[in-house]
Amino acid sequence: MKKWIRALALLFALTMVAAACGADDAVEDAVDEATEAAEEVAEEAEEAAEEVTEEAEEAMEEEEEEAPAEEEAAGYAPGSPECVAPADAGGGWDFTCRSIGQLFEDLGLTSNVVVTNQPGGGGGVAFADVAANRADNSDLVIAASPATAIRFAQKQYTGLEADQFRWIGAIGADFGVVAVPADSEFETFDQLIEAVQADPASVVFGGGSPVGGQDHFKVLLLSQELGIDPAAIPWVAYDGGGEAQSALLGGEIQVATLDVSETIGNEDLRILTVMAEDRVPGMDDVPTTTELGYETIFPIWRGLLAPGGMSDEAYDFWVDALGQVEASPEWAAAREENGLSPLRLLGDDFQGFALQAVTDFRTLSEPFGLVAE
Amino acid sequence: MSDRLLGLVCLALAVWYTVEARTFDGTGFGSGPVGPKTLPTGLGIIFGALALYLILRPDGEPRWPTRQALWQIGLVIAASYTYGQVMQPVGFIFASAAIIVIIGMLFKARLQLLLPLSIAFPVVLAFIFNNWLELRLPAGWWGGF
Amino acid sequence: MTTAMVAVSIFAFNLLDGFQAALTPRNIGLALVGCLLGTLIGVLPGIGPITGVAILFPITLSLGLDDAATLILLASVYYGSQYGGSTTSILLNVPGEASSVVTTLDGYQMARQGRAGQALAIAAIGSFIAGTASVLGLMLFGPPLSEITTRFQSPEKFMVVVVAFATVSSLAGRNLAKGLLAVMFGIILSTVGTDLQTGVVRYTFGELKLQEGMDFVVVAIGLFAVSEVLSLLEDTVRGEQVVFQKAERIWVTFKEFMFSLGAIIRGSVIGFFVGLLPGTGASVAGFMSYGLEKRLSDTEGTFGTGDIRGVAAPESANNAAAGGSLVPLLTLGIPGSGTTAVLLGILISMGIRPGSGNVFAETPELIWTLIASMYIGNLMLLLLNFPLVKMFVKILEIPPWFLMPMILVISYIGVYSVNNSSLDITIMTLFGVLGFIFRKLEVPLAPVLMGLILGDDLEQNFRRSLVASQGDYTTFVDGWLNIILVLMALGVLFLPQILSRVRGSSVNDEFADAGAEV
């Protein structure tokens, strides 16, 4: 509540400023009035703010008492921690920053984490800015997902390579799914594969990304494994998974490759397979690709990376902090709400995994001219 | 004459736009029945035709700004551009104060009224953005909020 | 018939439950705070309803409110920010988001004539009526209407966009050729960026920032607001007084209300139905309702010069579209717009998964609380309007020497804070200059924005249709729905001609000719 009171006070103060400049002839009166009002308001706001701080301090103390056994983080503590979401507010990367950032703060690992949205170029604007201007900033982390790895692989972040950044870790993963309408002729994944193998052009696929983007990559990987020419499979690109679902239900496309989080619990859809090794909570009755005998899996991990010039000390701090978030019940709850499966891939393990993914994606993209020169 | 000039500029844009469109080829996946070059090509041609029409049938002359007005408009443009460039190093508050003073004076402000407002207004805005909307504005010389 | 009535009474009953859950003194307080905050957010250009709600949601969570309270707060913020966006469109000619572009056309003219109060009031009244109508529509026809959503696939959506473009001559001003030039220029701008189908990058000059396309807000504020400041500066140099007429009244009379009622109702209906279409809905609604209203009612040529119906129609349509977009969200789990995507995230975090069967029939309490919340937000905004309008109209009394720099700084910083890019400020300034030149040459500005907003929908839906049909062009006239849409597009083009025949007057001949040329 307190935050809102402060904001209200500000709104009031702003109005007063506006009103003060309103009447040219009555400037003095208005200014007096405004000053008085603003002072009052400011006092109230201050009080409110103090209360908030007190509460926060109390909360933090409690936190400390609760978890004294938690291992002491490395000697580094970020002064003004910042999480860059390389996209607009409201998307997946923004979610990563806001939810993990909030937990860093709530668990007493860092002070208030500022989330900066830096959209453009599928993340390229943010990466270019960080690499050019803030490459040695140790307080800064950037949200990432396989889409990041794909764009690195296709050299879409002009002049930047994945190993110019330090990959901190991934906690939580969504998985790709292959979805058809509930009344589709395809009852099993094998039926679908049979039809596609018989005539790749006969089944229209679609999803929320262009050719060579994240959703289309699921088709690419599968068709590569099956030895089908992916270029022969029609692909319709939509502006996000929501539109693709609408097209699927309306029969414009027969199959959509989406994510678990987008489709979980939707009874209008039939999920043929989850592109994972193990069954996913909430989709316990859907076979995974591994169970069906395919190698292809498609985890959409949610992770963080850091500028290349981050010190080892700071890197260790962030790896440790992210690990603590992963282990917390709060993250477990947030993860579940958003249809993510558990995943814990930290530090060097993640660095190796991510760079390998970039290499694989590049190998796959090159024959189709998807890698920029 | 002005309309003809606009027509010429648009025609040039149309030609460049259409020529450029021809270079858009799909990837190894082909580009579907209608590729990425089709709409721009058609658009460029229609745009060019409209530009030609404008050259052939221009309207009357508008009242263009006087030389003095042009100077002042140029000043606003220069100030705006600089504002964006210096935002990061100088910070939101001082950059804003400067641009408010410049533009305010062009609109014939009294400096003694304008100066305090030019600082007060960005300070209030910065407070709202940083503390409540949690959108961080560059602090620059002000040194944190 | 009886089943329908039973259904209605069940829905009404549930809605009452929803209200009961929502209407506590604390929640009403939250609605008040939310509306005020939302208005403030909406007034800052660049930070629209989506960003506002997305940013505030985690903060709301940390406040530890219960679900109903959270929904009310966010719904109020949403409505408040939409209203805030209209406010700047009307008062300052700054359209903060796509849906309020057309509002500037008559709204800003009204403000200059000292009728800002009426414009703001009718916007609030129209929004409220439209909101009420769309809640009713949602309750009565929600589940069956979801059929419509899935019927409208890419070919149909393409036709809807064509219908919207067919209204362009109502935005074109005196010289139709220039109007068409403007709309084509807008579509050209819309092709900048990564092509959604093939991933090919077009017209970005190697600038990464442009890969995601021209930012609408940047272009809109440049063309409208920055160029307005430049124009007013020129007037000042000329020695002409830059003052807005002082407002005589700040509320609408009953007569004005009745005069706008038709526009409000038509706007609500169009908005609601267009809102059902995922993706296309929200941006088309305003343009379509304005265009149709002008073609239907503008017998004296007053649209564009400060006609109150020119504010009432698009504002109602926007609000109704927001309600309409809830249908696919709640029945199919399909978020049709940025805002509904955020809303979906919020619902999911509360344990509701729309799209799992019929959420209306299974009536989770929260759905009704949500609907009640949106309604309360709407009502609160109407009530707040009385004091707020008074305050907003005062903004126009700020002398230009401070108002003008204020507008520029707020415009620049609103966008900068969201995108953190100085390139945006440069682009905005460039479009300001362009807007200034266009004004001088009487090239209308609104069609540029129309082209920019709808150009992408036009191209992508066209190409999607053809990929899906594997190159078969008959997909566009396949089925009765498409035929109706084609007839609608033709109807929109020739409506003034038809109307003037019927009315036996020749007032509209100019427009009829204009329409025929399109």
Features of the shown structure:
B: 145 residues; mainly alpha; 0% strand; C: 518 residues; two-stranded antiparallel sheet; 21 helices; 1% strand
Quick summary of this structure?
Chain A has 373 residues and is of the alpha/beta class. Chain A has helices spanning 2-22, 27-66, 92-106, 124-133, 146-153, 189-198, 214-226, 241-250, 260-263, 312-327, 329-337, 347-365, and strands at 82-85, 114-117, 140-144, 165-181, 205-207, 235-237, 255-259, 269-274, 299-307, 341-346. Chain A is globular, with a radius of gyration of 25 Å.
What does this structure look like?
The complex is a heterotrimer of chains A (373), B (145) and C (518). With 373 residues, chain A is an alpha/beta fold. Chain A has helices spanning 2-22, 27-66, 92-106, 124-133, 146-153, 189-198, 214-226, 241-250, 260-263, 312-327, 329-337, 347-365, and strands at 82-85, 114-117, 140-144, 165-181, 205-207, 235-237, 255-259, 269-274, 299-307, 341-346. The termini of chain A are far apart. Chain B has 2 domains: 1-64; 65-145, no CATH class. Chain B has helices at residues 2-21, 38-56, 67-90, 92-106, 111-132. The model of chain B has no long low-confidence stretch (mean pLDDT 89). Chain C has 518 residues and is mainly alpha-helical. In chain C, helix 6 (116-151) packs parallel to helix 12 (309-324), helix 9 packs antiparallel against helix 17 and helix 9 (216-238) crosses helix 18 (422-440). Chains in contact: A-B, A-C, B-C. Chains A and C meet through helix 1, helix 3, helix 4, strand 6 and helix 8 of A and helix 2, helix 3, helix 6, helix 14 and helix 16 of C.
